[in-house]
Amino acid sequence: MVFFYTTVDESFIVYCGRDKHENEELIKYGWDEDVWFHVDKLSSAHVYLRLKDDMTLDDIPEQVLTDCAQLVKHNSIEGNKQNNVGVVYTMWSNLKKTGDMDVGQVGFYDQKAVRKITVAKRENEIVNR
User: Fold this and answer.
1) Which positions fall inside the NFACT RNA-binding domain (predicted)?
2) Most Cβ neighbours (<10 Å): which of 30, 46, 62, 93?
3) Measured distance CA(13)–CA(122) in Å, rounded
4) 117-129, pLDDT tens digit by residue?
């Protein structure tokens, strides 16, 4: 079951899968305007942010970016326990899925199109919204 979240800006749609099988389904059915978030180098949920018309990665409000990063950290067994967790994000269209990859695993067509932010610590007021 896909979960939807409310960000600080309620005009954005944010959703995630809870396990690798749901992540796999989300990989298949993403939209070109979706931004994908994942904890870097650890297992985690896939969190997606649907951009508004004509928006780019540069246009994402910082508070919305923080909300998505917090959600992906919160939905990582290892990442949730750690401080200063790296979170990567890129456009859904940059996700590369090949037949030899595990369920829920992805790569990237263009590594330079992947951005990274650091989540210093979990903010419960965000993840419990």
Assistant:
1) 1-110
2) 46
3) 21
4) 999 999 998 888 8
CB count within 10 Å of CB 28 equals: 7
Rounded to an integer, what distance in angstroms lies between the CA atom of residue 4 and that of residue 50?
A: 11
Measured between alpha carbons, how far is 28 from 22 in angstroms, rounded to an integer? 10
Give residue 52's identity as a one-letter amino acid code: K
pLDDT tens, position by position, 71-84: 999 999 999 999 99
Provide DSSP, 2-13. Answer: -EEE--SSTTSE
Tally of CB atoms within 10 A around 118: 12
Distance of CA 23 to the CA centre of its chain: 10
Region label for 82, one of left (φ > 0), alpha (ψ between -120 and 50) or beta (otherwise): beta
Length of the chain: 129
Separation of alpha carbons 40 and 42, rounded Å:
6
CA 93 to chain centre: 13
Give the residue carrying structure tokens 């004509």: 54
Predicted confidence at residue 93, as pLDDT, reads: 95
* Coil/strand/helix, residue 33: coil
